[in-house]
Amino acid sequence: MKNVFSMLCITALFVTTHHASAGPRIADLKDYPNATGSARSFSPNGALDTRNPFFQSLGSNGRSCITCHAPDQGWTVTPAGIQQRFDATGGLDPIFRPNDGAVSPHADISTVDARRQAFAMLLSKGLIRVGIGIPTNAEFELAAVDDPYNFASSAELSLFRRPLPSSNLRFLSTVMWDGRESGPGATLQENLIRQALDATQGHAQLAGVLTQQQLDDIVAFEMGLTTAQVTDANCGKLDTEGGNGGPLRLFQQDFFIGINDPLGQNPTGAAFNPVSMTLFDAWDNLQGNNAQSHERAAVARGQRLFNTKVINVTGVAGLNDVLNQPVIQANCTLCHDTPNVGNHSVGAPLNIGLTDASRRTPDMPLYTLRNKSTGETVQTTDPGRALISGKWSDIGKMKGPILRGLAARAPYFHNGSAATLSDVLDFYDTRFNIGFTAQEKSDLIAFLRSL
Ligand code: HEC
Ligand code: HEC
Fold it and tell me: Which of 424, 432, 443, 445 to mutate to test the pocket of ligand 2 (most atoms within 8 A of CB)?
């Protein structure tokens, strides 16, 4: 097996050396350590070609895509990585730019101490300020703003969001937390091309445009990436003894839009299968009696809980209202349905309650929105999909992201509100009154961190 893959890599290297000179390359299959093991990326191109425009400063502020999508941080950025950059540069690294790195574009960045305040959301939770205004045709208006940084208005709300990983993209059913880069009827390729241009004009403050070649190269690069956890501190290698963790198996994973959809949009007509995760089936009945075998058994138990633990889903806009069922007896996989990947297999923005006023922390702005026809008001830290569709019913809706490579990229959720996987489970436990036992929690964590 090992030989086949190294041959594949060597062949691919020859195939892709059409560039005249050999530039810097990040060796393929390189492991990057993280808190609980290491993650690895696989690319059929054999090596990560750092001459790709993904790595180049193409705008006016020194930023490139890897400024916020770093290979050693799960293709996003983590607070630890950002703090290191701050300390190494006194807060002058290109990620520290006021347009969207700071709490407000007007924040004082004249001294190191001022920069520490201005970039507090990046430093604490790895959050970028996404600025989106209320669309003119919206069913709602902004009745009040409580922005601790005195900037947000209906022309531009400040939404503090985690960069999504720029890897495993071929599994996407929708691009961005709010799906705003998924045009109706457009292909994933077209969406990612538009995304790459928007990212360069926005984050990197490019006044002009990129060439088609640059855009094609960026998208070819990111679409070639497959990333997963490959070793775990407790279980060792995640792709042995029948375990199917790691990026090579993920690279072979089948996917099409609707491949496993609880709302009946599978194009083959196949029924929804709540057992969406099967990576660690073989670890269910391990014979070994050493510490590693015990840990592998915990991963298998966690996977079974993910597939089968009953959750009474209530009050989720996009599900309970659509299905007209006040309580849906479900599992984690009702929403994390793509086999062995865990995002929604169709575009399905959902409001699971993370943006509710009751969960607001003092560092987040709070917006009061008023329905133009009913006068009803609602408070939210991020209107999500509603700022794209203008629909009242879309307030607070976000996509369910891909769940691979999680260990490399805490904190979790769009707003980084869960510092650890344990905090993620606590959210679900309180939100849906699940009543996890301590054992169930630790098994689920063992599973999630092995993805
Ligand atoms: C300043 C930080 C920053 C830079 C620079 C940046 N991004 Fe991002 N990226 C983000 C954030 C934040 C999001 C999520 C925003 C949202 O959904 O509202 C994101 C989302 C994405 C996504 C969506 C993934 C998904 O699951 O939907 C892709 C793809 C992506 N970026 C690619 C790129 C590319 C290509 C570049 C360079 C042209 C780039 N990014 C530059 C911060 C950045
Ligand atoms: C009702 C639908 C639903 C259910 C049930 C559900 N999730 Fe989620 N999950 C989501 C959505 C939507 C998000 C993204 C929310 C956000 O960040 O705004 C998410 C995000 C996550 C994330 C964070 C990923 C990241 O990159 O930040 C993890 C981890 C996760 N879910 C695990 C679970 C586990 C474990 C369960 C079962 C205990 C579960 N989910 C049940 C819909 C659901």
Answer: 424
